[in-house]
Amino acid sequence: MMKKIWAERLNHGWQSILTMPGWLQFVLITGFVAVLPPFIGNYWTHVLAYVGIYVMLGIGLNVVVGFAGLLDLGYVAFYAIGAYSYAFLASPKFGIHVPFWMMIPACAALAALGGALLGIPVLRMRGDYLAIVTLGFGEIIRILINNLDALTNGPQGLLRIDPPAIGSFQFTTPTHFYYLILAGCLLSVFITSRLNNSRIGRAWIAMREDQDAAAVMGIDILKYKLMAFAIGASFAGVGGIIFAAKMGSIFPDDFSVMVSINVICLIIIGGIGSIPGVILGAIVLIGIPEVLRAVAIYRMLAFGLLLVLMMIFRPMGIFPSARRKLELKKED
Amino acid sequence: MDILLEIRRLTKKFGGLQALTKVDLLLEEKMIAGLIGPNGAGKTTLFNAITGVYAPDEGSILFLGKQIIGKKRHEITAIGIARTFQNIRLFPNMSTAENVLVGHHCQMHAGVWGAVSRNRKTLQEEAMAQRKVMELLSFVGLEGQEDQLAKNLPYGDQRRLEIARALAAEPKLLLLDEPTAGMNPQETLSLTRFVSRIRDELGLSILLIEHDMRVVMGISDRVTVLDHGVRISEGPPEAIQRDPRVIEAYLGRPSERVRKRSRPPHKNL
Amino acid sequence: MSLIFTPAVIIEQIINGLTIGAIYALIALGYTLVYGILLMINFAHGEIFMFGAFAGYFILAWLFQAGFTLNHLILSIVMAFVGGMLVSSALGILVERLAYRPLRKAPRLSPLICAIGVSIFLQNIMMLFVKAKILMYPDVFPEETVDIGPISISYFQILIIAGSILMMAGLYVFVKKSKTGKAMRAVAEDKETAALMGVNVDRIIATTFAAGSALAAVAGVMVGMYYSQISHMMGFVPGIKAFTAAVLGGIGNMPGAMLGGYILGVAEALGVLVLPAQYKDVIAFSFLVLILIFRPRGIMGEVVAERA
To answer: Helices C155-177 and C179-189: crossing angle, nearest 10°?
Structure first.
């Protein structure tokens, strides 16, 4: 009898959680995440912070893949631009020490510029060619980083990168970076959600639905694809500078094609176009293997298999946005 | 009245197929012009050339006195030419209101900063756009349907929505590609009246591709007839109906026609 | 760069280039065949090449251990090739059936993403199978060279270049003359019509995959014999380069793929004379980016009316 009452109460509680308005869910989850560090200790805080960087990357790539429908397999290049730009200007390497906070918009802008430069020639291409070319571009960047020793120290990497500082307070512990990254994620969510619900967002959706009709309706397809590409790249740039500051040292191997593939996977598996999907994807695909090292060697195998299964059975991902679900659901 | 659209000697080839040969067309302000011809005559190709989808091989297209060949599709829309499609191309998973809102895109200006900051200018622009959308939906008879997904609308409503979307671009010239295709006589009559209203109330010019002769002859000020990419006749509807070249294009040469008791040649062709 | 550009050096590099180019050409044919028939880039093709190399390895290593190779070297090599071809063909057919066929009607990016998944999956299956070790082909091959004046060509290089030309010619004849080949071309032109004409489209597609995969396996075994080392990651970079070659020649065009392979190989080999060796891969990647920007149809491809 008592069991039945508790079961009912639990069910009732669960229902009211699910039917809460979106913004309230968001506030609660954010609040929950914000108070975690003291309870989970340094190691887990570090892992979650790392997941958070991938959440930012996922949200950024979502603009390119999810909103504009372009498969960019060389996303890591912009991540590298952000990281190395900061490392050049805030480490013993050249003896320059530009403050972190000034470098954030600079790295975003540099990455966006890189995105625009790459995009101009590349965006006229067909989808599959675009994917391969961006992959090639990402590899070119990695090879350059690895070999331009005078600039990047090549495989030795760049070390003793300045941590962020406010006055005399320096960001050093995992908890500090946790909150920095959390703020970054919130800002990313804010920006992309505003973009999505704007004239620009509508143009992107129309382009996805029927590109030729959208063009005839007055949308400059090339301009909006370029915009998506550059905006997406800028998120990676900011992710890069945060990564460099957090790790304190960066090496060319940190910027391999695997990063691009990881981010693509977490968007596709988590749910294209949807922010909860990206977060879920990041936690499952990045967080769990970080922690379960025994599982880690099977991680890529699972990624590969998941990509295949997802494309065949659930192309919209686990937690798609409502609109994407509409677009990708098989016609009954 | 001023000349709105002037097409001279327009020619377009696709590989071996001569789609348009030296076609001339003149359209004045506030004029409804019909464009008719048997299937494959080149009518939609002409629309595609005007809207910048195809680049013509020869000839010129002047809109308000300026050459528009070579301009990109979205530029041509911004200049004042909007169209509908023969096989309706709405954005299926967007709502009715969203479809019209996209049509209004070229008349709005908000960029990245406006989108993210939602400053006053942007909010005002969005509010005005919303009002415009509601007005247009009301004008085409779709009020109350704002949130319906475009793909779920009945066929007749989809055609109206396409027109509303085109009107949202605030064009001076509206190209309608077979707007009454697939409609029953009542719907056809209703749409025909509606097209007249567009010209009368909004002051647009309309170039209309149609197969239903009652529609074309009913509301057109002038009619141009194409056959195999060549303009074979042009003039007011009454003249076109009696033009033997037009009759021949549709029905074949007199000797090929089956002898029937005589009746007017302009029923549903 | 302190190399002296004597004609001998250049000619030797050209021959090196033709050798590696032959490998690229064999792999590129697989890409082009699949693209011609399904309009998709088989991202996992590099891994099929890799599996062929490993299959050849296991056969040859076993024969070597059994002492068989001492007296029956040529037969052993042939068995390695045939075994590799069988394994890769089977793999290609399996991948097509399980991963690509369900997506034939899906929007174009879905099969591409799926292919990426297959590629990752196959790489990691092999990694787990060999415990991420690098394996070495048994050292049983003749090292002799033919010397024409100052130029030295190894028997191996001759074997690779000649063998690959032979295989590609065989494929070409097969596609142009045989009944199956005609059916393949029909399906590539218009699937629905071919089906209406009685062609078993599924079987033809499977055959296409089998043929392309077999060629990739030949390339894989050749690489194993020529460079000795094989690893589970060996398919990634050659895969992209072979794709570059296919695009360079004109994707969907068989002679184009062969031409593209040789051109890319020679370009790389000559490029190494002027650029530092580590930048070798950049040559191929840059080719790729430049072709797709400036001449996407490649050397021999037709213009495809395609808007971005």
So the answer is: 80
Query: How many distinct structural domains can be found in chain C?
Result: 1
How close is the nearest chain A Cα to the Cα of C299, in Å?
16
Q: What's this model's pTM, rounded to 2 decimal places?
A: 0.85
**Is C304 within the bounds of a domain?**
no
- Smallest Cβ–Cβ distance between A195 and the set B98, B116, B126 belongs to B116
List, in order, residues 6 or more apart from B254 with CB less than 8 Å away: B248
Q: Which of A209, A216, A217 sits opposite B92 (nearest CB)?
A: A209
Token representation of residue A124? 């006229």
Which residue in B93, B102, B115 is closest to A217 by CB distance? B102
Is there a domain that residue C301 lies in?
Answer: no
| A143 in contact with chain C, both atoms CB, cutoff 8 A | yes
Residue C91, domain member (yes or no): yes
Q: Tell if the CB–CB gap between A212 and B106 is shorter than 8 Å.
A: no
Give me the CATH number covering residue C274.
1.10.3470
CATH assignment, B1-80+171-269 = 3.40.50.300
CB spacing of A199 vs B94 below 8 angstroms: no
Range of C201's domain? 7-294
Instruction: Decide if C299 is inside a domain.
Output: no
Residue A332 falls within a domain, yes or no? Answer: no
Coil, strand or helix: which one is B27?
Answer: strand
Beta carbons of B94 and A209 less than 8 Å apart: yes
Per the structure, how many domains does chain A have? 1
* Closest CB to B89 among A199, A200, A213: A213
Contact A217 B149 (CB under 8 A): no
Determine the residue of chain B that is closest to A327 in CA distance: B93
Measured between CA atoms, the residue of chain A closest to residue B88 is A213
Per DSSP, chain B holds a count of helices (H) and strands (E) of 10, 10
Q: Helix, strand, or coil here: B208? A: strand
Backbone angles phi, psi at C148, to 5 degrees: -110, 95
Asked whether residue A186 is domain-assigned, the answer is yes
Residue A7 forms contact with C (CB below 8 Å): no
User: How far, CA to CA in Å, does A45 sit from each of A164, A174, B98, B104, C199?
Assistant: 18, 6, 43, 48, 60
* Per-residue pLDDT tens digits of chain A, which is 332 residues long: 677 777 777 777 666 656 666 677 778 878 888 888 888 888 888 888 999 999 999 999 999 988 888 889 999 999 999 999 999 998 888 888 889 999 999 999 999 999 999 898 888 887 788 888 898 889 889 989 998 888 888 888 898 888 888 888 888 888 889 999 999 999 999 999 899 899 999 999 999 888 899 999 999 999 999 999 999 999 999 999 999 999 999 999 999 888 998 898 888 888 877 778 888 888 888 877 776 677 777 888 888 898 899 899 988 777 777 776 777 664 43
Ordered by start, the domain boundaries in chain B are: 1-80+171-269, 94-160
